[in-house]
Amino acid sequence: MSATIGRPDVVAVRAWLLDLQSRIVAALEAADGGAFLSDGWTRPPDGKLIGDGLTRLIEDGALIERGGCNFSHVKGQTLPPSATAARPELAGAAFEALGVSLVFHPRNPYVPTVHMNVRLFCAFPKDAAPVFWFGGGMDLTPYYGFEEDARHFHASCRDALAPFGDALYPRFKAWCDEYFFLKHRNEPRGIGGIFFDDVTELGFAQGFAMLRSVGDAFLGAYLPIVERRRALPYGERERDFQAYRRGRYVEFNLVWDRGTLFGLQSGGRTEAILMSMPPLAAWRYEWSPDGGTPEAVLYTDFLRPRDWITP
Asked: pTM for the complete prediction?
């Protein structure tokens, strides 16, 4: 539920988000050896949105086949349907939203795809006090599962939330397992992580501190996995399975992801919104891996909700 507020410190949130984006891009450029393009943009006050942002994208890199880390800060006069489906009382409200969102699709099938976003959302109903909420999280989508990687990623998520209460990690992990689920396939997108939305109960100062802790934990959660897996040899079989599983990623983002719907419904920049799409994906009719293969193990051992931390 949203909470009544005065206007939060949007300036401080914006400054931290831009710094976070800069740090993540610098670290991934160092890991990849290539440069991210930089595309700054502004929205003139003649459409659905006004605001600005910075798109950072890399394609055909040595490590990252396609990935981006985007900052946006927009304001609009009317919340789109995707933002009010669970909050009908906010229909028609003006809004302000700012955040950083990233997706990295590595080239090597043994390195998992990763997603992270952190955001602040404010709504300004015509006949009620303003409301705000924090949202975000990070999740991991491996193509070949490694228990060590899953434990590390989830432990990093738990540790980021620990200063704000022991109940947050189990709650946000369960939320992630439920959200990143392809209902039409009856399977998870990956091994999850943490996901949260509508977080107001901590207040602005503690809520912002929690958001910073999650965002700042990303590089430590992901880069050690990258370094363990990036040099593993692979061939056409592994690339073919990677493309098949990337098809599931596309399906989730286009069918179920609220962020994609919000961006498109609110008149956002299409190329930046669809930055999360992989460069190559594939589909097959009525296919499943042979039992006992590493591809089958992904389904039996990894694509299901699990306690990844407790031995």
From this structure: 0.91
